[in-house]
Amino acid sequence: MLRHFGVICNLKIVWPPPGSAMLATTAAISFRPLTIDDLPMLHDWLNRPHVAEWWPGNPPLSEVEEEFLPYIRGENSVRPFVTLLDGSPIGYIQSYVAMGSGDGWWPDEHDPGVRGIDQFLAHADGLNRGLGTAMVSAFVQRLLADPDVTHVQTDPDPRNGRAIRCYEKAGFRAVREISTPDGAALWMICERATKLVTTLAPPATAATPP
Questions:
Q1: Across-strand partners of 204?
Q2: How far apart (Å, rounded) are the C-alpha atoms in residues 2 and 158?
Q3: Phi/psi at 62 (5° precision)
Q4: Whole-angstrom distance, CA of residue 121 vs CA of residue 123
Q5: N or C: which end of the chain has fewer CB within 10 A?
Q6: How many CA atoms lie within 13 A of 151 on its CB side?
Q7: From CA 154, how far away is CA 152, in angstroms rounded?
């Protein structure tokens, strides 16, 4: 579903945020597909403490290659991307088709239009500055531009308050806590603005979205 992504630049943000001592500039968030040449960089990122805290930590390069090469080759529904800020790599983000994910993930999902996402920022000094929200917002905007996509969902650890706040600022709402192969998670979804308005408007008997 993401063949149309290529390299995209669809969101400009003021960086640093207001109140910073640094000189504010206009910066562009963009994405490019993850490549084989990126795997050593991704390996380094995944072993950084702020990433390993919430992702499976400290994998050797061989495990990174084993997991991510099928994504790069398009052997499943996962579509991996490097996030760029003004052309410089700042993080990783991926989408996938929730239905049929396998390995115990989303076994009750029967809507082929649901997309899941996962992401992290590569640099600890980029945390708590709005970059995560900008990254997620830009990526979700592109996903929802596809009319076949019904909604986007994610599943942060309930203890990961920073990630949950990031998703909330990007337009996600919490549904409920669920059990996943990785343990407890908070199921969060983001829908198109027009659909969300419909769910908030009368009549009270309107069907609850999935």
A1: none
A2: 29
A3: -60, -40
A4: 6
A5: C
A6: 19
A7: 7
Is the pTM higher than 0.85?
Answer: no
For each of the domains in the chain, give its residue range(s) and CATH number, in order of start: 8-200 (3.40.630.30)
Find the helix or strand (DSSP H, E) in which 44 lies.
Answer: helix 39-46
State the DSSP code for 81.
Answer: E
CA end-to-end distance (rounded Å), the chain: 21
Tens-place pLDDT, residues 71-112: 999 999 999 999 999 999 999 999 999 999 888 899 989 999
CA separation for the pair 71, 65 (Å, rounded): 10
Pairing of strands 88-97, 151-154: unpaired
Other beta carbons within 10 Å of 88? 10
Structure tokens at 110: 């029967």
DSSP, residue by residue, 27-42: EEEEEEE--GGGHHHH
**160-196 burial by CB neighbour count: b if 16+ within 10 A, else e?**
eeebbebbeebbbeeeeeeeeeeeebbbbbbbbeeeb
**Tokens 């076949």, located at residue:** 148
| Residue that is written with structure tokens 């990785």 in the block | 182
Which amino acid, 82? V
Q: Which of 188, 186, 210, 207 is nearest to 198 (CA)?
A: 207
Residue whose entry in the numeric block shows the structure tokens 């989408």? 95
Q: Are 174 and 163 in contact (CB under 8 A)?
A: no
> Tokens 């309107």 correspond to what residue?
206
What is the reported pLDDT for 58?
Answer: 83
